[in-house]
Amino acid sequence: MTSSADVRDVRDPELPGRLLIVERDALIPLLRARSEADFGIVTAGCPEWTVRDVLAHCSAVLLRVVEGRLEKGAFSPESNARDIAERGDWTNAQVVDELERVMGEAGDAIARAGGRLDGAALGEWVHAGDVREALGEPGAYEGPGLAYALPLLARLSRERGLVPLHADVDELDEPLRLGDVSGVRTPGRFIGGAASLVRLYAGRSVSVAGAGEFELVGVEAGELNMFGG
Fold this sequence. Notes:
Blueprint: H1 15-32, H2 51-67, H3 77-86, H4 92-112, H5 118-135, H6 146-159, E1 165-169, E2 176-178, E3 188-192, H7 194-202, E4 214-217
Helix pairs in contact: 1-4, 1-5, 1-6, 2-3, 2-4, 2-5, 5-6
């Protein structure tokens, strides 16, 4: 992976959908090959949820996007809990089937939303990393979707006014610039692998085995958390 993922002023409306398609094609076969028991493993990224719960949540979020059911509170913790409970009597295969379908359908709706829903695609990709990590599969928070996730992460971090950061990412030839570009604050510096950078912005642990070494200077890890919590 050698292309730059620098911040762009112009939104690519198709990028979130491409991220979902690439992730779908990588994740769904992996899930279909796992045992029933594996769906009951608790995830570290969302310790209150099992693998199955995370997948049901992802599927429900994208279904809401596809169907335009985006009323106030649609993505609240209470709504998330109801969505998971509604799929409580489904088989694991049914959960995976729905997820496969909506990952292929949601891109058009996200593209039409003018950027308002772009974060949903990134969040889904991060949750796929949660699932991979829980299952002991390689590629958590990296893999084929990284080429789409990094520029999306950079743009969203800028739009949300996060602290500025210059990231020298192992997988990129050019620095990745994230967060506020007003110049009010001197940018922090990150040196390390893309998976570690994603973990920081997703609020995932960077101290677990296999997370990778990195250097972070001029900014606290908690200031980079894009999703809060």
